[in-house]
């Protein structure tokens, strides 16, 4: 997590950063389970747990912060790339759920890299680039967090 610019003081960024921790921790459990050879139904349950955390998170990013950032051509391409990565992560989860365990390491690495891009690139840039009115719109557009999954 970025700690140098103070972007986590924006409520939505702080929330997204906390959700990143939960997603990556749960994805780590999934990765470990696959490597340990747990039964397929346990892998499916962990995939569903990761998806249950990731889907509402990426939706909230896309309809809130990303929607406002997309209006500024400075951010538009970066936001589109991150949205494409959301789709890629979803496809990797689908492959895992269908039994292709060979993608687990790629999923984990891609997830960590994606989070790095957001926390050390996009979020600090948004903190500097968005006005107070923009942040009010981000807050208004961002769906409330759902209950957290329990491991």
CATH topology, by name, is Four Helix Bundle (Hemerythrin (Met), subunit A)
The general outline is elongated
Helix- and strand-based class?
Answer: mainly alpha
List the uncertain runs.
Answer: none
Rg for CA atoms: 16 Å
Distance between the termini: 22 Å
Largest sheet, if any? none
Question: By CATH's scheme, which homologous superfamily applies?
Answer: nmb1532 protein domain like
Output the CATH class name.
Mainly Alpha
Roughly how much helix do the residues carry, as a percent range?
Answer: over 70%
Percentage of residues in DSSP E strands: under 5%
How many strands appear in the DSSP assignment? 0
Q: How many helices in DSSP terms?
A: 6
* CATH 2nd-level architecture: Up-down Bundle
List SSEs in N-to-C order: HHHHHH
* Mean residue pLDDT: 91
């Amino acid at each position: 997590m970025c700690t140098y610019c103070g972007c986590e003081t924006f409520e939505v960024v702080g929330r997204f950063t906390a959700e990143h921790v939960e997603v990556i921790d749960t994805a780590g459990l999934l990765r470990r389970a696959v490597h340990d050879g747990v039964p397929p139904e346990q892998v499916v349950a962990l995939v569903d747990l990761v998806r249950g955390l990731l889907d509402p998170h990426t939706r909230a990013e896309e309809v809130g912060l990303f929607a406002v950032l997309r209006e500024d051509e400075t951010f538009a391409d970066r936001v589109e790339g991150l949205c494409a990565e959301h789709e890629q992560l979803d496809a990797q989860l689908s492959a895992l759920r269908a039994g292709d365990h060979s993608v687990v390491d790629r999923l984990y690495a891609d997830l960590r890299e994606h989070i790095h891009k957001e926390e050390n690139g996009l979020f600090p840039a948004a903190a500097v680039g968005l006005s107070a009115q923009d942040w009010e719109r981000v807050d208004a557009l961002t769906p409330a967090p759902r209950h957290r999954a329990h491991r």
